[in-house]
Amino acid sequence: MLIQIADVLTPDVVAALRESLAGEAAGFSPGKATAGWAARDVKNNEQASGPAAQAAIEQVKAAILGNALFQSAARPKTFVKLLVSRYKPGMAYGTHVDDALMGGVRTDMSFTLFLAEPESYEGGALVIESPDGESDFKLLPGHLVLYQTTSLHHVAEVTKGERLAIVGWVRSFIRSPEQREVLFEMDQVIAKLREAQAPREDMNHALKVRNSLLRMWAED
Ligand code: NI
After folding, report:
1. Most buried of 21, 100, 121, 182, CB within 10 angstroms?
2. Is CATH 3.30.230.10 the right assignment for the domain spanning 3-172?
3. What does the pLDDT average to over 31-55?
4. Would you list the domain boundaries of the chain?
5. DSSP label at residue 77
6. pLDDT at 117 over 80
7. How far apart are CA 136 and CA 128, in angstroms?
8. What is the pLDDT of residue 35?
9. Residue 201 CA, ligand 1 centroid: distance in Å
10. Which residue, among 179, 128, 132, 188, has the nearest Cα to 155 in the 3D structure?
11. d(Cα 46, Cα 191) in Å, to the nearest integer?
């Protein structure tokens, strides 16, 4: 499943994060250091690990966990890793696939939360590759794209301005992408039933099916 989620952060929060990450306390350094050997030769960006970056990551984690659509699409058990990433002109991240295990924890879904205004930089799209073709994402600040960690992807070269984003990996309660999608669809059905003020009995059956599937499939 590949899904865009709007307004994970409010414009005020985005503005504050951009300001705090522009200062020295962000602590940016070359991103190659955290790349596995297969990605090292294609990775050319910067990552931040200073106190401002850590604070930004904690704030973003809380916002993402509070987002109902993210919860439904990812069923996150835990965040495996989050990184503040920045691309300046000439920087790009060539085609690669992310590690299946990070620090001994399986990665199921990846996300990119955009922080810069799309008009403020040129290039820098996240391009997700699939047998059906490529999908480009260059979203508004505060919006994110969530996708399978199994996907080949790249970040197009930034030719002007600065691309600032927070990227992360989630370990899901549900290992199988197909099962995650069925549960996501069931959540949609339940939401529609609620909206339509469906009879309690119908709602109970839908909830019973969703919860039973969750119980069968979840790795807690
Ligand atoms: Ni990647």
Report:
1. 21
2. no
3. 87
4. 3-172, 177-217
5. E
6. yes
7. 7
8. 78
9. 45
10. 128
11. 40
